[in-house]
Design brief:
The protein has 17 helices and 17 strands. It is of the alpha/beta class and about 450 residues long. The protein folds into two domains: about 1-40; about 45-440, no CATH class.
């Protein structure tokens, strides 16, 4: 086997799982040397119950392995075991659906992992080790920090984590862990950075704001930025203004991004939208010169403000998504839509029609509204997700079986898709949103 060309040996390694790679490296010195490149995946995942920071630190100190990690994922989510009533109901539903009881084994495994986690300690207690590791990871390109995905590797918990109320929200600990990662961030040059639950109040606290600002050089190297802001229950006007100012400064430091997702999730009131001014957030007419993909979710803004922000990106903007799933439960319609507190959607789309000159795809999702309950020209729509975030078609008969609207009065008489609006914005033609209800026509429920 030693006579095989290196290229063929590498092809063999590509088809080997980790145990086979380790065994194959024992064949000869030649195979051991080639196998170095296959000992580790380029995607490193850190979870709390393993001492993954120590492992990452050891990899970073190894002259040949330090260049292997290209993507790093921190799983920092927790189950809210105190929400036992909701969890019990969910367990019973899963048991009835699957025909067998997975609860005892799943919870037994969970408690074993949590016991191991107490021996390792939280992430923020190993900040210095994390910084030392980041200094010696030359090829790290992607950093993903998540507080909402199942970190336990237990399949049963996948369903639990789809329900936001079953996830524990420890804002103080999340802030400490994020601060530790941010302290290490200036030592790497990333292409992609994402956090799926950032406490918004962090951007108003002097010490934490400075940590974000110190990462300006790292943010300048980004091509993708994905931030989901967690809005606190109480935030006064002054605190909100300072937080938006801090967030805006961070966003503007990422001046070379091509892909931006900005979402606001209000956990204490999931259907509530965060009032946002693009002029305040982006210091007037700030423009991303390379932006091709934009997604905005869970906000309330004015028609003119949103139109101005979109039009100044028209030379480069190719794919636009407004709205999203938000904090909807698996069986609910999307509730991460957009609200226009001033203006109308029909007027907005008329102003954008054929003016987004580079636009190739458009998607509208969730509870889309304008005006308030006392406005005669109020628009209220529910738009279904038609494509995933990577623009693959969603087949509702497969993916959304069992969906239904929340109990109580419906927001709208019908659900819609945005395919007609996509054509309207890109190719022109008549306004597509006149939908018949009985013997009348309307362009939105009123």
């Amino acid at each position: 086997m030693d006579l095989l060309p290196v290229e063929l040996v590498r092809i063999v390694y590509q088809y080997c799982d980790p145990p086979t790679v380790r065994a194959l490296r024992l064949v000869s010195a030649k195979y051991a040397d080639i196998g170095y490149d296959y000992l580790l995946p380029d995607h490193f995942t850190a979870v709390e119950w393993k001492d993954d920071v120590q492992r990452l630190h050891s990899i970073a100190r190894h002259d040949r392995l330090c260049g292997r990690p290209r993507a790093l994922v921190f799983h920092l989510a927790k189950v809210d075991v105190e929400r036992h009533r909701e969890a019990i109901l969910l367990h019973q539903w899963l048991k009835d659906r699957e025909g067998h009881d997975l609860v005892p084994e799943a919870w037994s495994n969970y408690h074993k992992l949590e016991e191991r986690a107490t021996l390792v300690g939280p992430l923020h207690t190993r900040q210095s080790m994390l910084e030392a590791a980041f200094k010696r990871l030359p090829n790290l390109e992607v950093l993903d920090i998540n507080f909402t995905k199942n970190p336990y590797g237990i399949e049963f918990f996948d369903e639990i984590f789809r329900h936001y109320y079953c996830r524990k929200q420890d804002r103080i600990r999340a802030s400490k862990d994020l601060n530790s990662i941010l302290s290490a961030l200036p030592h790497v040059h990333l292409e992609s950075f994402s956090i799926d639950q950032v406490p918004l109040e962090l951007f108003r606290q002097a010490d934490t704001r400075q940590r974000w600002f110190d990462c300006a050089q790292t943010f300048a190297s980004l091509s993708r930025l994905d931030l989901v802001l967690d809005v606190p229950r109480q935030m006064g006007p002054a605190s909100r203004s300072r937080a938006i100012n801090g967030l805006g400064r961070v966003l503007q430091s990422a001046s070379n991004i091509t892909h931006l997702r900005l979402a606001f999730h209000t956990y204490h009131s999931p259907a509530e939208k965060f009032e946002l001014s693009f002029r305040a957030l982006f210091a007037g007419d700030f423009t991303y010169k390379k932006l091709t993909d934009l997604k905005l979710e869970g906000i309330s803004c004015s028609e003119e403000d949103l139109k101005s922000f979109l039009l100044r990106h028209s030379p480069t903007l190719e794919r636009l998504r407004l709205g999203g799933r938000g904090l909807a439960k698996p069986f609910e319609l999307s509730i991460g839509g957009i609200h226009l507190h001033n203006g109308r959607w029909r007027s907005l789309f008329a102003g954008l029609k054929e003016n987004l000159v580079a636009l190739q795809r458009f998607h509208l999702e969730g509870d889309i509204e304008s005006g308030d309950a006392y406005t005669r020209t109020r628009e209220v729509w529910d738009f279904l997700p038609m494509v995933s975030d990577d623009w693959n078609t969603i087949h509702h008969e497969d993916d959304f079986v069992g969906w239904h609207k929340k109990p109580g009065p419906p927001r709208c008489k019908e659900t819609f898709d945005s395919l007609g609006l996509e054509k309207f914005l890109i190719s022109g033609g008549p306004w597509p949103m006149f939908i018949k209800h009985g013997n009348t026509q309307t362009d939105g429920c009123k």
